[in-house]
Amino acid sequence: MSDALIVVVLLLVAGSATAAVAQRDPARQALVLSFLGVLLAALFTVLQAPDVGLSQLAVGSALTPLLIMLSVRKIRRRGRSEEEDG
Amino acid sequence: MNRLRLWLLAVGGAGLAALLVAACLDLPGFGGSRHPYGDRAVRAALSRHTANTIASVNFDQRAYDTLGEMSILFAAVLGCVVLLREARDEHRARPEPADVARPVRRYALLVLPVALVTGLYVIAHGQLSPGGGFQGGVVAATALHLLYLGADYHALERVRPLGVYETTDALAVSSYLVLGAAGILAGTAFLANTLLPYGTFNTLSSGGTVPLLNAAIGMEVASAVVVLLAHFLDQAVEIEEEHGRGTP
Amino acid sequence: MHVLPYPVAAYIFLTGCYGLATSRNLIHAVGCLAVCQSATYVLLLAVGYRDGGTAPVFSDMKPGSRPLVDPVVQALTLTDVVVGATVTALLLALVLQIAKRHGTVDPDELRELRG
Amino acid sequence: MTRRTAPRAALLAAGELLAWWAVLALLWLVLISTVDTLERIVGASCAAVGALLARTGRRAVSWR
Amino acid sequence: MNGWILAATVELGGGGAAALWGVTTGPPARRVVAQNLTTSAVCPALLLLAQGYGRPSYVDLALLLALLGPVGTLVFARLLSDDLAGERPGAWPLTWTAAGLGAAVVLALCVAGAPGRATVKLLVIGALLISGNVIASRALAGGYRGVRGG
């Protein structure tokens, strides 16, 4: 039963990693990355590593998406202000 | 050019995949029962009355590693501060105040202290239950940014005197070093856990210097994340390039 | 089941490398690097797992009452997660600087700019 | 005018801080598993930090 | 091994696969809703796992997810508010179903365990989870209409 659980979560992680690479738009990729972060935390719990799961949860669910989305916003704003200039 | 690069990638990837699969087949089987280092680490942690073996490995048996990790974090934050500073051809524009729906604003204000206390709980109980300085520090720093999400950047700036956090970051790093050096002064080795009594198993004061190092890391991470996000937020929200001047 | 997690880790790593090599946007490339890093977490924790084991955290159980997984690789992974997050932040700061200097985040256009 | 409202404002501020402190200290007691003196001291101080931040944040946002 | 782990497997498999499908396909509006539902799918599974492994200390993971998951969704709701402006993704039936699922899991765990401090902790996590998800849904459904520069 434990084995089945590990297999299920591993396959989900592999699937979401593929999806994260396949999304070419950074904002959409950030959505998949936050999903991947939460899923990795679940995988670490299943592999009996709650400490690592906690830090993955802390980093992956809010911090990394926030950093990526702020960068995306900055670059979008740059693009917009250049269009207005030119 | 592009086709060539893809071919090169395919060949290299296939070679790497073959090597990795060969290595996988040679690794000890998944779920095996032979973990010599793990068993010794657990024994060492128990002998020093630290309930969470991972905290014991991080802050006692391999505390030197954590020093390196902390320096990486410190250096990375320093690098971000340098890279994202306000350049001469930029100016700060005050963003318009945001109009956030009332339930979202109330939720942010109510959850902010709850998340902060939870982060402090995770830091304080790092040597007992799962958690520790890093995890709790990130949670506490994220909690602060609920003010940006639930209101606007101006509100966050009012509760976040950046200088204080930069000083706290440096202080936490040096307190880790001082705690390590105290071991030398006491006549043993750098970061050796012989300074304080080990205390009663499974209480807050158990584990010798582990809780103190843990708290130092917690402070360091929390203030480092706040400083890091502050510079990203400055770039994304406030700093604008001067108009009418073309990019180089 | 005996080896499944290791090939999964290798697969995640190779997928991330493919994304890195074919990326047309530097922010996307940083995300792909994060995927590569997650492969190392999976590999390390899979090495330390023990069938029927539980975490070596004794706040809610008696020492010696159950088999334990390896805490050393967990501590390594913890460091790995921290370093991964800081690397992401530093690279994103570099990307913002590149965008400011060159006005683009497409690696191919950047190569043309340099000449 | 100010002489009358000043003590009232201080009282309100103290009440708000105390209420938050009580709620957060209770939360701490719920989160932990065993209670001893050191645990109470640490919990009370963490709750005090949380209460201060709650009030500062509320004032910065200006509740609407 | 036991029923709790079986329930967690079903929840993680079903909820995870559905959320993965939702987060990778369709318009941005659907993707953020799926991202929000990730929290409400994984958090009860983590609670079930803590019970199934017999380790009360694993509950901290669910506590952190219940706190930080909605924060992550608020990040997207705020910084993608331009893209979401015309669409107003609410998905209220889905949100309330997920909330009901979380409540059911928390209540089942409360009944199964001995009453005490752990029960109150479970109830706190449940309250945080449900309120966080409802508020995040509200934020997606036009909670940030006036955000321009900030």
Describe this structure in words.
The complex is a heteropentamer of chains A (86), B (248), C (115), D (64) and E (150). Chain A is mostly helical. Chain A has one domain (2-85). Chain A contains three helices and no strands. In chain A, helix 1 runs antiparallel to helix 2 (26-46). The termini of chain A are far apart. The longest helix of chain C is centred in the last third of the chain and has 32 residues, at 71-102. With 64 residues, chain D is mainly alpha-helical. Chain D has one domain (2-61). The radius of gyration of chain D is 15 Å and the shape is elongated. Chain D starts with a helix and ends with a helix. Classes of the chains: A mainly alpha (86), B mainly alpha (248), C mainly alpha (115), D mainly alpha (64), E mainly alpha (150).
Descriptive tags:
heteropentamer; C: 115 residues; mainly alpha; Helix Hairpins; 70% helix
Helix-residue proportion of chain E: over 70%
Helix and strand element order of chain A:
HHH
Gyration radius over CA of chain A: 17 Å
- Proportion in helices of chain A: over 70%
Mean of the pLDDT scores of chain E? 89
Gyration radius of chain E, to the nearest Å? Answer: 16 Å
Low-confidence stretches of chain E: none
Helix/sheet category of chain A: mainly alpha
In a few lines, what is going on in this structure?
The complex is a heteropentamer of chains A (86), B (248), C (115), D (64) and E (150). Chain C is an all-alpha fold and 115 residues long. Helices cover 70% and strands 0% of the residues of chain C.
Mind sketching the topology for me?
The complex is a heteropentamer of chains A (86), B (248), C (115), D (64) and E (150).
Chain B: H1 2-26, H2 36-47, H3 53-61, H4 63-83, E1 90-92, H5 102-124, H6 133-144, H7 146-150, H8 153-158, H9 162-185, H10 210-238, E2 239-241
Antiparallel strand pairs in B: 1-2
Helix pairs in contact in B: 2-3, 3-4, 4-9, 4-10, 5-6, 6-10, 9-10
Chain D: H1 2-31, H2 37-61
Chain E: H1 3-24, H2 28-53, H3 59-79, H4 81-84, H5 92-112, H6 117-140
